[in-house]
Amino acid sequence: MMKGRTSNTVQSNRPTKNGRRDQKPQKKNGATRASEQERLKPLEAKEEAKFSESVSLTTTQADDNTVNGSSESHPESESSEVAKKQETVNGLVKDFDDDKRADLLVEEVQEDASDNGISSGSEKEASEDEEALKQKVESLERRIEKLEDELREVAALEISLYSVVPDHSSSAHKLHTPARRVSRLYIHACKHWSQEKRATVARTTVSGLILAAKSCGNDVSRLTFWLSNIVTLREITSHAFGSEHNGSEKLKRTKQPNGFTAALEKVEFWIFSRIVESVWWQVFTPHMQSPENVGKTNEKPKGDQEKGSFSISLWQNAFKAALSRLCPTRGEGHECGCLPILSKMVMEKCIARVDVAMFNAILRESEHQIPTDPVSDPILDSKVLPITAGDLSFGSGAQLKNAIGNWCRCLAEDSLEEDEKYFSLLNELSDLLMLPKDMLMDLSVREEVCPSISLPLIKRILCNFTPDEFCPDHVPGAVLEELNAESVAEQKLSGVSFPYASSPVTYVPPSSTNVAEKISEVGGDISRMSRNASVIQRKGYTSDEELDELDSPLRFVIDKVSVSLSSGHNGKVKQQDEQVGEVVENVRYELLREVWSM
């Protein structure tokens, strides 16, 4: 009886406890878990009270049975049964405590797992934020570095190109200030910066030089100024990197600024072409028109001798005018710091055009024929020719040779080489007119005397040849027949070559020998430069003091005015000086100083 009641009591309690365990939430956190525990506390207390009551009732019944059956059974069996019941009760209490501890342990594990999840998520988010911040800082650093590079390049161009007045002077060091300043930045970039930065400096430099040349318009002297500086810049950089002797040959080839020098040569060719065209249209073309257009006398030259003298004088003045436009300092008879080889090269191109123009004009059938080409055949007035157009004779050949000799001597006086061969077509024409005509049947003679004149043109000259007192004989018919037979075949292959076409402008950079003298004046002796590539950056060749002046031009000007007006205007000058205020240092110049000081 008591045994059955005990069993029922235990069964009634366990489902209640298991039900309570099943109803527990698997995961709680924060305020939700706390409120849930508060709500469950009364239920747990109630369950514990019921369980205690059941145990107490069972114990009481066991005691009653013990008392009532004392007279019916032996004492040993009764005490044994009581002990078994007590053990059952103790087991139930222990099971209840174990279940309660297990529930608490599960709750702790769930809470720890929840806390660990939140902690790991926070750490991941913090790591991502830190990585994003690091990338942003690196991006800003790269941007700042790029902006500093741009400011440094702008400062270099400003002080090297944009603040320079392109005037000729006797000092090569002063005239080539742009080349000297730009070379310092570029050589530093090649030695210490990456290839990308070197390319950026090179592009910026070339662009700045083009803009400076464009700003000159058709001013020949200023264009010559920049051409001289670009040639000098190219030679300075070539010498600097060619003199690197502290590394292998492979390192030398790697550091050699081939791309930069090639770009400079293209800019040189572009400026050189502009100079040639400007001199041609500003000086030589007007001299090919009527003499009145160039301020000459209106009187016609009388006689061939007077005509030749007039033409010689006219073109001598044209040559001097062209040289004065190329270099005003040398035009006035003074020494100039610009490269003289450049004026010589320009004059060679222009004289070659004059040579073609006179050759085509002389070979006209009469002086009344009009020009056919603005470059190859532009002469409008035949008075500017040394001989009459269409008058081809031995005497006219001699007169033409005399005019050429006078022009070459005039050019030699203007620092051009005396042995230089100018007027090649006119020289060949004069030799052809004075040569015995039967010798022209020999091909080797023609190639030696007049290699530039084609066979159809030789036949044209001989057909128009006129006997005179120096050569009274006509051209032999056999000579004309032989040349005619050969010229027919040549005409089929090459076509008619009159008027003779003028060659397009070409440019061959000056050799280092022609530039070496001026480079030694700009950046020191060439032998020293070959031993030390950084000689142009030494004290005495730098521009740091000029950079100080450019850093505050207003202060520089006012200081000079203060000195000149110190007597009688002290108060006024002091007031103006106070209005200027403190000099604010420009960041771009400070960045440039950092480079130049290394």
Automatic annotation (TrEMBL):
<dbReference type="InterPro" id="IPR021827">
    <property type="entry name" value="Nup186/Nup192/Nup205"/>
</dbReference>
<feature type="compositionally biased region" description="Basic and acidic residues">
    <location>
        <begin position="73"/>
        <end position="87"/>
    </location>
</feature>
<feature type="region of interest" description="Disordered">
    <location>
        <begin position="1"/>
        <end position="96"/>
    </location>
</feature>
<feature type="compositionally biased region" description="Polar residues">
    <location>
        <begin position="53"/>
        <end position="69"/>
    </location>
</feature>
<dbReference type="InterPro" id="IPR002710">
    <property type="entry name" value="Dilute_dom"/>
</dbReference>
<dbReference type="GO" id="GO:0005643">
    <property type="term" value="C:nuclear pore"/>
</dbReference>
<feature type="region of interest" description="Disordered">
    <location>
        <begin position="108"/>
        <end position="133"/>
    </location>
</feature>
<feature type="domain" description="Dilute">
    <location>
        <begin position="199"/>
        <end position="490"/>
    </location>
</feature>
<feature type="compositionally biased region" description="Basic and acidic residues">
    <location>
        <begin position="35"/>
        <end position="51"/>
    </location>
</feature>
<dbReference type="Pfam" id="PF01843">
    <property type="entry name" value="DIL"/>
</dbReference>
<feature type="compositionally biased region" description="Polar residues">
    <location>
        <begin position="1"/>
        <end position="16"/>
    </location>
</feature>
<protein>
    <recommendedName>
        <fullName>Dilute domain-containing protein</fullName>
    </recommendedName>
</protein>
